[in-house]
Design goal:
Blueprint: E1 7-12, H1 16-27, E2 31-36, H2 39-48, E3 53-56, H3 65-73, E4 80-84, H4 89-97, E5 102-105, H5 110-124, E6 135-138, E7 143-146, E8 149-150, H6 155-166, E9 171-173, H7 174-180, H8 191-207, E10 214-217, E11 221-224
Parallel strand pairs: 1-2, 1-3, 3-4, 4-5
Antiparallel strand pairs: 6-7, 7-8, 9-11, 10-11
Helix pairs in contact: 6-8
């Protein structure tokens, strides 16, 4: 397997021996890793190369790891696993509140780390380069890219399209679209979903006029496909 096909991990850890051990273990599972002992270097590396996930220590020289999370979240939604010997529950709570996806207290078995990495990446979807994906959802910025073009969506349209993308190539009922949307009132008519879908279709057609990506599924609802 070539490196471009492997999971790419950035380890921000000031213990070089631990970083080396983790890197060697991750390599057994088709994961390649880079290490930064300094948080500022780690932040710089994040802007220079595409990574799929960050393993972040909290006790770092020059900047606390909790502050590093804030810096990362200003520009990226990349998954972050905190790897820390600090056992204060407050650190865990603050870390998760600032945007970390998981917290692993040291010491831990590297096998568990591999499992957690795979679980997080499976949850957020296939690992592809953004420019190669038909749809890219930025939930923090509430922006959806279609073929690299940002769509001008209302809050309800964003909710509906994001749900369809989450279930791409699978049918989603009108009821599910209605109740999972954060910006449609629970007592809204199911017919409102049809209206919103029509508007989304129109906005997709402005980018790709010759193809229809949202298909009606009789008796159920709608299906978003990437195989047109």
């Amino acid at each position: 397997m070539q490196d471009e096909d492997k999971i790419k991990i950035l380890i921000i850890e000031d213990d070089p021996e631990l970083a080396m051990v983790l890197g060697a273990y991750l390599a057994k599972y088709a994961m390649v890793s880079d290490t930064a002992e300094d948080p500022y270097i780690g932040l710089s590396m994040l802007t220079q190369k595409d990574y799929n996930l960050i393993i972040l220590d909290l006790t770092l020289p020059g900047m606390d790891g909790l502050d590093v999370i804030e810096k990362i979240r200003e520009k990226s939604d990349i998954p972050i696993i905190i790897s820390s010997a600090r056992d204060d529950i407050t650190d865990k709570v603050i870390g998760m509140e600032r945007g970390a996806d998981d917290y692993m207290p040291k010491p831990y078995d590297p096998r568990e780390l591999v499992t957690r990495i795979k679980t997080i990446l499976r949850r957020i979807g296939p690992i592809d380069k953004k420019e190669d994906k038909l749809f890219v959802v930025d939930r923090k910025g509430r922006v959806i890219l279609f073929k690299g073009t940002p769509l001008k969506l209302t809050a309800a349209e964003f909710d509906i399209l994001a749900i369809l993308i989450e279930h791409i190539n699978g049918a989603v009922s009108r009821e599910q679209l209605l109740y999972e949307s954060e910006h449609i009132a629970d007592d809204s008519s199911i017919k409102n979903i049809d209206v919103i879908i029509s508007r989304i279709r129109h906005k997709l057609a402005e980018v790709e006029p010759d193809k229809s990506y949202i298909k009606p599924v009789r008796g159920i609802g709608y299906l978003l496909t990437d195989k047109v």
